[in-house]
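pipeline/complex-builder :: batch 7 item 3
reading input block
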Amino acid sequence: MADAPETTDIHRTRVENPVVEARGLTMAFGSNVLFRDVTFQVAGGEVFVILGGSGCGKSTLLKLLIGLYRPSEGEIHILGEDMEAAQGAARRQLLSRIGVMWQSGALFGSMTLLENVMLPLEEHTRLPRSAREEVARVKLGLVGLSDAANRLPAEISGGMAKRAGIARAMALDPSVLFLDEPSAGLDPITSAGLDQLIKDLARDLGTTFVVVTHELQSILAIGDRCIMLDKQAKGMIAEGDPRELRDHATHPTVRAFFRREAA
Amino acid sequence: MSDTVEQAGFDREGETLRLRGALVTRQVGPIWEAVEKAARGVRRLDLSGVSSLDTTGAALVLRSASLSESAAVEGASKPVAAVLERARAALAAPRPAAGEARLPFVAGVGAWGVSLMNRMLVSTGFIGETAVMGAAVLRHPRRLRFNDLLRHLDEAGLRAFPLTLLLGTLIGVILAFQSSIPMRQFGAEIYIPPLVGISLVRELGPLVAAIILAGRTGSAFAAELGTMTVNEEIDALRIMGVDPMAMLVLPRLVAAMAVMPVLSLLMDLSGLLGMGVVMGTLGFPPALVINQLQQWLTLGGLLGGLGKSVVFGLAIALIGCRSGLAAGRGPRAVGDAATAAVVGGIVATVVLDGLFAVLFYRLGW
């Protein structure tokens, strides 16, 4: 890591057949470099957390991983496929195997929650309508929203919108779920419920989660491994088990983050 | 990473339905209906051949099991059973309660009437609130935010000039051409200038300017205030002790009332210009056209048209602001508010124009 400060907080784990892999990612807007040389691998069934302070590029990194932005340098491989090289049917196929929960839920306002979840099923599967409805009800049930199936997004709370966002992201039972700030703005009880849901889904369905968050409790509760980005260092300053990093980090920013101290 | 999964399939043997392979989203679509058919009347669902299961596959298994009474699900491996259990729990959660029962016809009409009356009361309240605020600003003119007023004058007025000039000229050209055909039959082409002139100055100028204002500005007012309502900015203003009527509504009302006579006049002049061009092509010199206009157009007619355009501007801005401030939640609410503003603005303009026609007729103007 050319630009990382002198640190021992980057504990790389070699992963066989990584589900998500970033190799030397650099993102710059004009001459403004957001981060450089970000490299990590995510194993199947793992809950991988991308953390860092505000403005360090967490959400941008997520958008790079799902192919909405193109990196200035570096490569991204999702399920073994090069995200940039995949075009046409291959890209469509790849997109059907990932799900994204957006920070605000990004539910379509003119559709009920049930219709929101049914939409990807309609696009990507040959299930008959009654089956799509049944499957969508299972997904809504998984996130505890069975009784709100017929409500419009404008009629539900922020926490419910996030859970509905997860249900829609899970519509096609994707191999990888990307979650952008799942706990932000939620009360501790709802937030803990969401953490539990992520853990259960990873365990029971073997889904891989890549979660962007800065909620410390969430990180410690759900994260198998994490990387930390830093605005000052313009790159990664830590990688490893979040609990290990909390107890043994040496980089002052990582220590401050995990101990909730002012840096 | 390998993308190959075991093919999903099934077979029925007596009262046992055997499912096999990977029952995952990508695979169960083509076999769903066939499995449903085969599952009718079975007593056992054998999952021992199922290598993997996701929640969509689990939905199929549970659906199949529910199609016949007391069908037992057997042979699932531990991971498959875990997914199945999770999906079973998800489906067991209470479903939405049935929607409210529809009211009987008479009660329904009554409820509709009451809600209509409530909406009218709220709208009347809004007009009253605006009037009170307007009176307060007359006493303390500094409450009117001058910078905001200039911004709205620019957006509703200056930026609408090119469109107004274009439409005005085209309307003048069209009216002159269309009326020249019947007029020629009577040798009355010389009366085209007064015909087009009076139509424009008394009716079409203010009316088309109002339609432009409703489409460009009324919708923009509704969308901007609607977005502010959705983002809770209006509530924030109220809590800060700033009256949204004074800060947001009043500058828009004043701007709309101020720009309307200008837009109407512009529409009149460009329409007359367009008509003059057509008259030129028909062989009538400009002096003759001007002479005809001088003879037939009256200052009263022009002022009447400009005066009513001020009222149109007030109505359009009021409806636009009201629609925006009454917006619900979500992105759809903003779209609904903009639609309501345009439709309401145009309908109000035409209704008011009808009232003015009756008024001017009675007054003999």
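note: The interface with chain A takes residues 1-3, 24-26, 28-30, 32-33, 54-56, 58-60, 62-63, 79, 82-83, 86-87, 89-97, 99, 328-333 of chain B (CB under 8 Å).
queue -> next item
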